[in-house]
Amino acid sequence: MKANTQKSGLLTCHASLFLFSRVEVTGDFMKFGFIGFGRMGSALASSIIDAKTAEGSEAIACDVDGKAIKRAVEMQAKIVKNNAELVRQSDVVFLCVKPSKAREVLKEVKAKASGKLVVSIMAGVKLKTIEMELKGARVIRVMPNAPLLVEEGATAYCLGKNAGEEDAKLVEKTFSRIGLCVKVKEEEMNAVTGLSGSGPAYVYEFVRVLAEGAEKAGLNGDAAKKLAVQTVFGAAKMMKETGKNPLELIEMVKSPGGTTEQGLKTLEEKGFSETVKKAVENAAKKAEELSKA
Fold it and tell me: pTM of this prediction?
């Protein structure tokens, strides 16, 4: 495929990839467009198509990046010339670009956005910022997290002033295919960022040091890593499926004077609980700072 280096509006085809899918949602056929086709955008698009609610032949793409083009070709994508054209053709538009690109993308598509449902996964970009540029659009702000890439995401969303309940249902249905999706108020989004947005990294770090502790106790590295990962996975699954709160489950594992009680005592002596709480709080504060930048 020959690269198109001609400028189109404020962005060129070098900057992003656009995907357009004909998707059946609640009995209606709708056209979904994706501005930005990085890890999150492509995972979301693939999820919609893999759910057998879309035909790959209905996709439209534009990019000169080799990997993006390959993904688009695998989805049998057609080509659109720019963001504005994608918005014109779409019923629902997903904004999946980096926050630093937000203003230029919004300016490029503003003339075509009225009446469209616009779903933003741009971290830290507030509803009012999008709505100021996209007059008449129905805007929903979404905060997914990295496990969305393996269809186990934890996603929160909040509605803009023009978005309705049907729009909310569509977003919930879309993101629930690839994990959990909950509705929150926009003022709660920074806390969401500190929890589920940054949280996977905290869990990865916990798994890392859990395995290192096992190695110091005499276990080989390969077994330590595998057991640490499965322990966290199994514990989370048990909590989710039983509906029991963490304290109930802790009581199921520990016994008076036993090994688990000793381990928990050590965690508290080293400030584990307060450190984790502070990590979430500080990440949320940082999210607020970045949203004002």
Answer: 0.87
